[in-house]
Design goal:
The chain has about 400 residues and is an alpha/beta fold. The chain is built from 14 helices and 12 strands. The strands form 3 sheets. It has an 8-stranded parallel sheet with strand order 4-11-10-9-8-7-6-5. Strands 1-12 form a two-stranded antiparallel sheet. The protein is globular.
Length: about 400
């Protein structure tokens, strides 16, 4: 569509804000309490600089990497995110975009589309789980993901059910009954393009989470599944080891910021770790993921694959993360803004922007491959890193 291309993730965010009803857009902004962590995730990248060369640069640059056994064409994966009411095709559009650009996608247990549809759109799908319900419930969900063809498992452990935002929490209904539709009508009618996309698709936004359904039961509502999760006792490291063994394949522990937790995750059977603070949606005051990355990578990078998730908005951010020890990064808000701005094509647009930014940085740094990046390529100011949980 003419004029639909955008040149930065920031522009995708601006378009998403103009297109989405305020309640939907504020759910993407998210964060917790004062928003210190969500802000630091982005700002910390700006504190890092580069040490570029001017001659002898690589004529061709290679971005391909392998993550959890999956070869991908650039070191960017799409992180699992919950119910995507920003677009009728939701996670299926995201999966198609990732496949079109040669990368993998994570599918949330709280997604609005069933795993079978998402794997059909992109065979390189990792299924994400929370520690929710009984072991029998979790085993059933894992078996469904295995039958559907998921190629890896992501266990998200960094959640403390923080609530309350100084700027106000989004209004998310439990169901779309007549009373709810009337209550939200004023803000929805002010966003006719968003409404028109669902009218054309002949469907309402999905507020159920089909991947949390048990065999033979209907999909629970988002809040029904959320309540089960809240009422489940937090996992032990023995539980994490059980989960890894139950899956029996590539297994990522997501949400690690401490060295001691990274070591325990590796001991429990993780094949990958995502250094992440849940996009700032957790305990506010947790340092930016990029600040915690170097210590974790130094401690366990020879045992497991280390990824970074949090604050990535441009290709140069990806390069900074790789130089400080990450194998690849995962993005969340960035692709959701692209999805809101222009559907599948918008997600592809975001991936193209990141690929182009990575290539420009590699050129300037004189690197022929992302595998050649090292700490010497970045300028790290004193006191930048946070080495948490050291022995």
């Amino acid at each position: 569509m003419a004029g639909s291309w955008f040149e930065t993730v920031a522009e995708a965010e601006r378009r998403a804000r103009r297109r989405l009803p305020p309640s939907v857009y504020s759910a993407l902004v998210a964060g917790s309490e004062k928003g210190l962590t969500v802000a630091d995730n982005v700002a910390a990248f700006g504190e890092l600089g580069f040490a570029p060369h001017v001659a002898g640069l690589a004529e061709k640059r290679d971005q391909a990497v392998t993550v959890m056994g999956q070869p991908i064409s650039l070191p960017v994966l799409l992180s699992p995110t919950g119910v995507q009411a920003v677009h009728p095709d939701a996670e299926v559009a995201v999966a198609r975009a990732a496949a079109a650009r040669g990368t993998a996608v994570g599918l949330s247990s709280f997604a609005s589309k069933p795993i079978e549809e998402v794997v059909a759109a992109n065979p390189q799908t990792f299924f994400q789980v929370y520690w929710s319900g009984t072991r029998e419930h979790m085993a059933a969900r894992l078996e469904r993901a295995r039958r559907a063809g998921a190629v890896g498992l992501i266990a998200t452990l960094d959640w403390s059910f923080a609530n309350g935002r100084d700027w106000g929490s989004p209004r998310i209904p439990e169901r779309l009954d007549l009373a709810t539709m009337l209550r939200f009508a004023p803000e929805v009618l002010r966003r006719p393009r968003w409404l028109a996309s669902f009218v054309r698709a002949r469907r309402l936004p999905e507020l159920t989470v089909p991947n949390m359904a048990l065999p033979g039961e209907p999909a629970p509502s988002f809040f029904g599944a959320y309540r089960e999760w809240m009422q489940t006792p937090p996992p032990t490291w023995d539980d994490v080891a059980w989960l890894a063994g139950q899956w029996g394949g590539p297994f990522m522990v997501k949400g690690v910021v401490r060295v001691d937790d990274a070591t325990r995750a590796a001991d429990a059977g993780a094949s990958a770790i995502s250094v992440s603070n849940h996009g700032g949606n957790n305990l506010d005051g947790t340092p930016a993921a990029i600040r915690a990355l170097p210590a974790v990578a130094d401690a366990v990078g020879d045992r497991v694959e280390v990824l970074l998730d949090g604050g990535v908005r441009r290709g140069s951010d990806v390069v900074k993360a790789l130089a400080l020890g990450a194998r690849a990064v995962m993005i969340g808000r960035a692709y959701l803004w692209g999805l809101a701005a222009n559907g599948q094509a918008g997600v592809e647009n975001v991936l193209d922007l990141l690929r182009g930014g990575i290539d420009s940085a590699l050129l300037a740094l004189g690197r022929a491959s992302v595998s050649e990046l090292c700490p010497d390529d970045v300028v790290v100011p004193p006191g930048f890193a946070r080495a948490l949980g050291l022995p």
